[in-house]
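Obj.: predict assembly geometry.
Materials: sequence records (below).
Method: joint structure prediction, all chains together.
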Amino acid sequence: MPGQVLGRGGEAKVCAVSLSRVAKLHHARVLADGKRAVLQLKVSKLRALSATTAVTQAGLANVVWPEASLFDDHGHFCGYVMRRVDGKTLHSILGDHAWNLRERVSIASQLARTFQGLHALGLAVGDPSANNVLVARSPGGVTAYVIDADSFQLPCFPPCRLASPRYQLPKVQARKAPFAPGREADEHALAFLSFELLLGGISPYAHKNGESPQENAAKEFFALAVQDSLVTDGPWLVRWQALPQQLRDLFTRAFVPSCGPKPTASEWVALLSSISVPSLWPDLQVKVPVVPAATAAYSTTPRRLIDRVLFWRNSA
Amino acid sequence: MTSVSNTHTVYQPIAIVLDVSPSMATANDPAFRAPIVDLNDALGCFVRDLSTITHCAVECMLITFAEDVVVECDFELASSLKFPNCSTRGSGTNLGGAIGRALDEVQARRDYLRQTGVEVNQPWLLTITDGQPNTNSCPGFDTRLAALIANRKCLFIPIAVGGCAAFPVLEQLCGAASKPVVVGSSGAGNLTFTELFSFLSQSIASGQVMNLADIQQSHE
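Observations (raw structure tokens):
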């Protein structure tokens, strides 16, 4: 029997089942018009797939796979059980300075590995978005989990429902092409998510005198790489310029049309797992004041520094 | 009016234009509460729901109108916003003046946000009225509104309270693309303000483009 509701979205709600398991229960309208049978079959396939060695070899341990199907009192499929991940949504940490740049690179790198692994198995993420990734901290580092596995695109299954507009391909947002989940759409979303992570939440297409997010994406104008004077007010230009050149080149290829082939998940994996970045964004780095040892009231730990900068920024 | 922050990179402006002519203090059926009372409660819940949204910065403003037009609250982030308790006043219904003023405010806010470079979702203009306008201090507001709707620069959400008198007026402003939403007294089996505002906040929370017809359908 499902317990406390932990989250609710447009398609389903997630309830606690035990300390280590949660149930995803789909809303009735999501299961209407024959979609129940398709979703039941898809969950069953995903469950079977998750137990194969191919999944282990592809490094997909960070995917929250369905573990058992759930049925209502009439015996109709209504959702599934999965392991419980106690983390924050990626979206909620984008602008949170408590998550440092190295942790963000690690998250982006793990996401790229997951995307790469799914593509190697012939699958696609389907609905890649910052709300479908949970991140958790532990003494060993950060871990990024991909949830919403039932929106994965499987071969021989109808295309999944419409995905989060923000992460869709510019040509889809410009209404020049229909939404089609697959590798191309995933790779754009991966670049977009990585950019949001490493810059702190801004869209690559935001710029001065721009329009709505959809209209900006349709124009594919990447101000940071093209025209400094049109970059959005704030710390974005400083943060962009502080990124390693190889990373900026990859983002430029991803977001500027006719700038070479779009980067693949494998390219992101190769780069993100090898680059070195400072711990803090440059706009958060301050000179440590010289305090005589005898009068120092407290040690200037990085955490305290961040708090002091935030306090200063908020009071300014 | 708030400036932009580094924590939000997408903004969703919402202007609420509210009829506070004396008829809003009277329910069609005396057994039920007056629309203005239901509205005050529902607006409070609406702001509370909006303040929990994290994927964009939702900012609201409130304009009330009778024969005059008053900006009760300038654009403010939902997280720090508290709408005043609205009460009825005057005797006229200056719908055109109120919509014209709201369009000025929305346009100015949108222009400011665009200059800073943050992304601005299509502004929402919620117009809530229960009667026929009998004065208009802003001639040409309807043409201006129609152009903004046609160019997707404004999402017009007309709400006819009670339905009878206000519906044709708002229907004319909507154009062919949509129909006004009819809201009635709570407890009378109608779509209520609480349900309407709950639907609207969920639409923003989902990040999907709202279809106005879904509001009525979800109730039916």
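Conclusions so far: The longest strand of chain A covers residues 77-83.
To do: check interface contacts against the pulldown list.
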